[in-house]
């Protein structure tokens, strides 16, 4: 075989060769999503208006030390729930807004007496309130700024 023949043969062999794959990086081999477990309940992807009301009612009850029945849902503005309840000290009404993002419940006092409290309670020093929805039962879990955890069943139907 001549040099030209060998070069042509090597060129043809190279055309049919499969390209080499680079080794997978850790980012490619590890999934960012947690595996789904049938033993762990989670928040539905999209909550119905009724579920949103019940979750906010249970969450605000837990946050403010009230019974679920004491929290009155006054209305819904898009995905924000307006609620109120009897103020335990002076008998007036306390009002708040509530929203749900994933399994996180965030609230905002309405008519706050202090401008620094007229905000969504989602800053570093605020308790973190989460929920688990299981049929008609809403379980509320609060993580306090000091790391303490409070869990309670609310809204049993």
Structure description:
The protein is α+β, with helices and mostly antiparallel strands and 157 residues long. The chain has a domain of 106 residues. The chain is 22% helix and 31% strand. The protein is globular, with a radius of gyration of 28 Å. The termini are far apart.
**What value does the average pLDDT take?**
78
Whole-angstrom Rg: 28 Å
Outline, from the CA principal axes? globular
Q: What percentage of amino acids are in beta strands? A: 25-35%
Most strands sheet: 7 strands, antiparallel
Please summarize what this structure is.
By secondary structure, this protein is α+β, with helices and mostly antiparallel strands. The protein is 22% helix and 31% strand. It starts with a helix and ends with a strand.
List the helices and strands and how they pair.
Elements: H1 3-16, H2 26-29, H3 49-64, E1 72-77, E2 80-86, E3 93-101, E4 104-110, E5 128-134, E6 137-143, E7 149-154
Antiparallel strand pairs: 1-2, 2-3, 3-4, 4-5, 5-6, 6-7
List keywords for this structure.
3 helices, alpha+beta, disordered N terminus, 7 strands
